[in-house]
């Protein structure tokens, strides 16, 4: 990836890497991979090899929407993890030797911030973007980068720019140009005040899959009084400690493959009913970004009455329409809302909180595949030659975590994922209508 050994400051952390970033949490194509069952706490993994567009098409614009990199737990979950660990550490002697490591364990994870692995994820993503789309860049047209104002999102965006710059041998040096305030109108952050939550669905599933685990742990640790919520916290500790140390945590071994798949399904329910299709006010949170995307794709002013910042979006400085690469950095919940507003990953039936097999083998709503740490959606605009037309026709193609999407919501979409730009815009009537009045229900 890099032509020589380089040192890059990852928001205050100095690291040296050669020919790409080597991490101990390796990607794998095996049918079962532990870290690919961690839901929103999974590290990014590509769902497919990148497939170039047809030879009759040429990419002329790229829009990247990316989640921040791997982080420590937020404050509330961190406290719950500490409580669950404390319960186990209060036990004088375990009945199962596999738990003995717990007596010597120190819970010292931070809260909220990126871990070094998470910073490296964004660095690698920036380098990948240059290597894939560098032909679009010139000294007069470098990527335009925005981020939501959360510290981990801002640092992820900044690290992406470092990776892009390094991959270009410091020839092209994008900067973070706009930070959107999460306390105000922000298309990169979920801002619907009256949105519901997924508690009913996730708690229903927790009550189904955790009792055998609760019994096993309490039998092995007499007097610990582990609860179902503690089980969930300990499973998240596996993920958080693994990304923090870049090695699989000892806590991961307390749970088997079936239990990890049940954990993933809880995360699937959380996103589906929290900000996705199962949440009445979930998709409307994605409307503003889609209208900004349409503006860029069509080189027309933003037309939106939801959560866009009209002052920023009406300025050619803070919302230019002439760039060839755009990169926006956000959170997992907002990516879910945008996918749902757009029509991606729509399920034939709602997820069943009592049955993880209800969607069958073809269920595409799997959180670790949608919004892992550093997960991303890429919208490519292409000019394609058509034999019956003198001028090239504008098309779009969408990739999520490297996999080309079929765009079955877009009339005339081809088998290789291409859809005419005008048909794509037509397909986004939910966004272009301002969310069919749903946005007003948020306040």
From TrEMBL:
Q: Which domain of life is it from?
A: Eukaryota
The reaction(s) annotated as catalysed by this protein in its Swiss-Prot or TrEMBL entry are:
1D-myo-inositol 1,2,5,6-tetrakisphosphate + H2O = 1D-myo-inositol 1,2,6-trisphosphate + phosphate; 1D-myo-inositol hexakisphosphate + H2O = 1D-myo-inositol 1,2,4,5,6-pentakisphosphate + phosphate; 1D-myo-inositol 1,2,4,5,6-pentakisphosphate + H2O = 1D-myo-inositol 1,2,5,6-tetrakisphosphate + phosphate; 1D-myo-inositol 1,2-bisphosphate + H2O = 1D-myo-inositol 2-phosphate + phosphate
Q: Where in the chain are disulfide-linked cysteines found?
A: 57-384, 238-252, 410-419
- Pfam families per the record? His_Phos_2
Where would you find this protein in the cell? Answer: Secreted
GO CC terms, sorted: extracellular region
GO molecular-function terms, A-Z: acid phosphatase activity; inositol hexakisphosphate 3-phosphatase activity
Q: Which InterPro entries match?
A: Acid_Pase_AS (IPR033379), His_Pase_clade-2 (IPR000560), His_PPase_superfam (IPR029033), Histidine_acid_Pase_euk (IPR016274)
Its assembly, as annotated, is:
Monomer.
Annotated protein name in UniProt: Phytase A
Q: Which organism is this protein's natural source?
A: Collybiopsis confluens
């Amino acid at each position: 990836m890099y032509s020589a050994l380089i040192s890059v400051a990852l928001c205050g952390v100095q690291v040296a890497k050669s020919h790409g970033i080597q991490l101990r949490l390796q990607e794998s194509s095996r049918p079962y991979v532990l870290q690919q069952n961690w839901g929103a706490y999974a590290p990014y993994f590509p769902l497919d090899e990148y497939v170039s567009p047809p030879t009759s098409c040429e990419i002329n614009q790229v829009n990247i929407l990316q989640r921040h990199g791997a982080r420590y737990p937020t404050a509330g979950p961190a406290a719950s993890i500490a409580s669950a660990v404390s319960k186990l550490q209060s036990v004088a002697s375990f009945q199962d030797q596999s738990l003995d490591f717990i007596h010597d364990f120190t819970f010292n994870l931070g809260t909220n911030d990126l871990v070094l692995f998470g910073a490296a994820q964004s660095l690698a993503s920036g380098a990948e973007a240059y290597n894939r789309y560098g032909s679009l860049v010139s000294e007069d047209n470098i990527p335009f980068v925005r981020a939501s104002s959360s510290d981990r999102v801002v640092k992820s965006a900044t690290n992406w720019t470092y990776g892009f710059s390094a991959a270009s041998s410091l020839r092209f040096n994008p900067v973070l140009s706009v930070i959107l305030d999460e306390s105000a109108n922000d298309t990169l952050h979920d801002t619907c005040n009256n949105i519901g939550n997924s508690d009913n669905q996730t708690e229903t599933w927790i009550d189904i899959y955790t009792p055998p685990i609760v019994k096993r742990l309490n039998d092995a640790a007499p007097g610990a009084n582990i609860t179902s919520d503690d089980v969930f916290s300990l499973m998240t500790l596996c993920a958080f400690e693994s990304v923090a140390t870049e090695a699989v945590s000892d806590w991961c071994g307390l749970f088997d493959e079936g239990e990890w798949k049940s954990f993933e399904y809880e995360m699937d329910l959380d996103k589906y009913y929290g900000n996705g299709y199962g949440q009445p006010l979930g998709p409307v949170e994605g409307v503003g970004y889609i209208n900004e995307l349409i503006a860029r794709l069509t080189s027309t002013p933003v037309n939106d009455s939801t959560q866009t910042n009209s002052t920023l979006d009406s300025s050619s400085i803070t919302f230019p329409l002439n760039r060839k690469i755009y990169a926006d950095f956000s959170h997992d919940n907002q990516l879910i809302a945008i996918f749902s507003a757009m029509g991606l990953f729509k399920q034939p039936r709602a997820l069943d909180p009592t049955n993880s097999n209800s969607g069958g083998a073809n269920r595409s709503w799997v959180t670790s595949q949608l919004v892992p740490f550093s997960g991303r959606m890429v919208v490519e605009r292409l000019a394609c030659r058509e034999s019956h037309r003198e001028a090239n026709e504008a098309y779009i193609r969408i990739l999520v975590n490297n996999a080309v999407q079929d765009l079955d919501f877009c009339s005339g979409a081809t088998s290789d994922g291409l859809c005419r730009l005008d048909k794509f815009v037509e397909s986004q009537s939910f966004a272009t209508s301002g969310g069919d009045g749903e946005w007003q229900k948020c306040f």
